[in-house]
Design a protein that fits this description.
The chain is α+β, with helices and mostly antiparallel strands and 396 residues long. It has 7 helices and 13 strands. Strands 1, 2, 3, 4, 5, 6, 7, 8, 9, 10, 11, 12 and 13 form a 13-stranded antiparallel β-sheet that branches.
Length: 396
Amino acid sequence: MFWTKNVCRLLLKYFASKPEIGRLSQKVGNFRILASSCLKCDRAMSDCSSSDDISSLLKSVEVSRLMVPGDANLSGNVHGGTTLKMVEEAGSIIATRYYNVAKKKLCPDDYESGAAALVRVERTHFIQPMYIGEVAELTAEITFTSSHSIEVCVTVWAENIIKGEKRLANKAVLWYVPLSLGNPPRLLSVPPLPCVDPKAFEEGQKRYEKQKEERANHQHTKVRHIRPSVSDEDIEIHTVSYSQSVLRHLMSVSECAGYEYAPGGVIMKLMDECAGIVAFKHCRTNVVTVSLDTTNFHEMIKKGSLITLTGYITFTSAKSMEIEVVVDSELVRSGEPKTVRAVSAFLTFVSLDENHRPVKVPQLKISNEEERQRNDMGKIRYEARKRQRLESQGQS
């Protein structure tokens, strides 16, 4: 480590004395960040006492909660939205803590208090279900930081404390950015992780660049709204219109955790609830969430906003259904009827019998060309998920 830090110092000094090297910043940028990380880590380690060593920030955050009837459906399955909300809470805790404590120690002159805001959730798969009476154990760990973002990995275990059994239920990767607490909030810089392994840093940089490009190219669905039917009796069963659902919710103070904006976990829980209604209306059986596709949060939802969640089926396979949920936000106190598309996502549900086993899903009936196009795109996404699942199983 001593050798690495001294090499970093010499090379950074060389970079500073050679302005022309700035033209090569794209090629050497990764090293410069990594070198700065090592040097800042060195200073932090020498300044901190053993009781509050900066390395403690890298330890995981652990959260446990007993699953109660309000967290589950009538069959005892814990809602996917409940899990997503807990995952985001754990990620927010460690990301906010890391920014504030590390920034104070590493960059005290540049410190401004802030809170982590969710901007992206990578595709997450619900590996095993959870039930009422079980304990959800979540472990959150920071795996990478860029100049303005924090990557957090959250693992969820379901524990049956009666039988003494534990199983992996979910694993998710989330991206946060620190924002100032003022109004409007400002984007803040993130201190680098101290003493990052070069290989781990390089892999994290690739993940960061990939998600950055995908976020920049992401476009929300153009569907503005779907008019709810006056009566289901007027619409043919198993069509998009029959199961479509619209959920409206006023974002209260209690849901914003003391901040001016709603946490991403609260929004994901509502999205899962809306999608669950769609799935239940289509199948009329017990339905559960099995996956959430990569989701980008492009607009923050302010406290007091009226949000409208619209959910509808886009595709059905033999035993699963894809449901898209779009979230529109309107700040009703502004006096101006302006609505923005805050987030949209695809969720996959399956239908279960009384023994919690997957059963066939009623096939979606296509009514028009727009629905057919969405169905074709849904099939492509379904095949991609299937390939990804098989590849991950092969690697394990």
